[in-house]
Write a structure and sequence with these properties.
The chain has 308 residues and is of the alpha/beta class. It contains nine helices and 14 strands. It has two domains: 139 residues, Rossmann fold, CATH 3.40.50.720; 165 residues, Lactate dehydrogenase/glycoside hydrolase, family 4, C-terminal (L-2-Hydroxyisocaproate Dehydrogenase, Chain A, domain 2, Alpha-Beta Complex). The strands form four sheets. Strands 3-2-1-4-5-6 form a six-stranded parallel beta sheet, with helices on both faces. It has a three-stranded antiparallel beta sheet with strand order 7-10-11, with no helix packed on it.
């Protein structure tokens, strides 16, 4: 398959690396800084022999190179700085995403588009509106990453190394995200039986602030290993027609009482892309928090509508 990764920063380059490591297909790494993209492509190609990969990476700034891509993964945009929220990036990154969307809409294929740029849910909505691509083929990488973060903080709090953690994080990729603790299990045991209410609340809050923690520690950038892995996990489910239920930012059409926005919901991903939303048994508190998260996204969408 052919992949286009737009944005050759840390997230984009790491996605390209994972794609060739897994042998999913050839990658074009596109960036306005063409030489940077070309240089990273050379470096990535020199690493592929270690993984016995037959795939390759090409870099540059030429949109004609991605017109027949099967997947387009958008990571371009400004990264958060310490003290900056995802919402602070709204209008600055909208301008960038708008330019990209108007170029990729000329695609010869109907590509799957995965948006990683922040503010995630709003940028995914913008791509959907501006490209006119089908809703089942436009998704945002959000809840997969936030779920991994939830798992990390659960593991850290319990002092366990077990990978047998079932967790889910829904809602916005921001401060109103909803870690679904009522359905979370560790080695088959309910998280409520392993943590008291205060410990669980602290773990949920750490999950919500997981990105900001990394930004604060790095000083000059934001997370990229886990975001890249999360985007590639979505690719994997689609390419293999796995049908995995992953929390992604997708277009809601009345599910969970939410409509006409992109928000993190349990989405089934198969060869058609996003093929449906799975209904989970959320408790009353979680349903209320999800509604609040949806309202926060809608407020931001309302701010950009006239610019689309």
């Amino acid at each position: 398959m052919r992949f286009a990764v737009i944005g050759a920063g840390n997230v984009g380059a790491t996605i390209a690396h994972l794609l060739i490591m897994k042998g999913f297909g050839n990658v074009y790494l596109l960036d306005i800084m063409a030489d940077m993209a070309k240089g990273k492509a050379v470096d990535l190609n020199q690493s592929k022999f270690l993984f016995k990969s037959g795939c390759s990476v090409k870099g540059g700034d030429d949109y004609s190179e991605i017109i027949d891509s099967d997947f387009i993964i958008i990571t371009a945009g400004l990264a958060r700085k310490p003290g900056m929220s995802r919402d602070d990036l709204l209008m600055k990154n909208l301008e960038i995403i708008k330019g990209i969307s108007l170029k990729i809409k000329e695609s010869k294929k109907s590509p799957f588009v995965i948006v990683v740029s922040n503010p995630l849910d709003i940028m995914t909505y913008a791509v959907y509106r501006l490209t006119g691509f089908p809703a089942n083929k436009v998704m945002g990488m959000a809840g997969v990453l936030d779920t991994y973060r939830f798992m990390h903080y659960i593991q850290d709090k319990l002092g366990t190394k077990t990978p047998e953690i079932e967790a889910l994080t829904l809602g916005s990729h921001g401060d109103t995200m909803v870690p679904v603790s009522s359905l979370t299990k560790v080695e088959g045991k309910s998280i409520g039986s392993l943590m008291n209410e205060q410990e669980l609340a602290e773990t949920e809050e750490k999950t919500k602030q997981g990105g900001a923690e990394i930004v604060g520690l790095l000083k000059t950038g934001s997370a990229y290993y886990a975001p890249a892995a999360s985007a590639v996990r979505m690719v994997e489910s689609i390419v293999s027609d796995e049908g995995a239920v992953l929390p992604c930012s997708v277009l809601a059409r009345g599910e969970y009482g939410i409509k006409d926005i992109f928000i993190g919901l349990p989405a089934k991903l198969d060869k058609s892309g996003f093929s449906g939303i799975v209904k989970m048994g959320l408790n009353e508190k979680e349903r209320a928090e999800l509604a609040k998260s949806a309202e926060a996204i809608k407020e931001q969408v309302d701010k950009i509508i006239k610019h689309l």
